Amino acid sequence: QKEVEQNSGPLSVPEGAIASLNCTYSDRGSQSFFWYRQYSGKSPELIMSIYSNGDKEDGRFTAQLNKASQYVSLLIRDSQPSDSATYLCAVKKGGNEKLTFGTGTRLTIIP
Amino acid sequence: GAVVSQHPSRVICKSGTSVKIECRSLDFQATTMFWYRQFPKQSLMLMATSNEGSKATYEQGVEKDKFLINHASLTLSTLTVTSAHPEDSSFYICSATNGETQYFGPGTRLLVL
After folding, report:
1. B46 touching A (Cβ < 8 Å)
2. Residue from the list A34, A46, A96 with its beta carbon closest to the beta carbon of B31
């Protein structure tokens, strides 16, 4: 079992709809959870971080964490073509420890 | 968010030469920086963890004598690819952490001829 698992996609969503990206992790000691967006040929960019169970909203983005189910998700409302990218889920145990990444989900927003 | 810079953004070199890549945290002090490599259409691969004032910790399979890392200050880490070969051509990305969140630099694209 991989430490962090994501559906590789591609996930296609019509413009204006909600895109839902999912991630599961295996280490129950994980404390911090992150979503990064990576455009083709570019480096990852932080979208959201979440540390507590529940929802965290930032603009069109909502991260959801369920530690009991070892599950973290990212919802993108009112999807735009500029949201088309690969989304990376990452977890870590805490502090300065390294991130463990999923393989990423490629999202395409269809105009 | 915090800003991390890398220099150069792109480098082309001849096989056998060495290339140095700089990673700087511009508006925060980073006790820990990380170096990644990414080949086309593949996932990020962590190469090493760099702590200020101490030796870097390399991931399994990464040659420490080939990829020299120096973290001389709280805002600067360097990666030197020694005796580069065409198979070292890749996208090298650093990140720096403020103790909680990792922020990535823009990356350095290395092409070895």
Report:
1. yes
2. A96
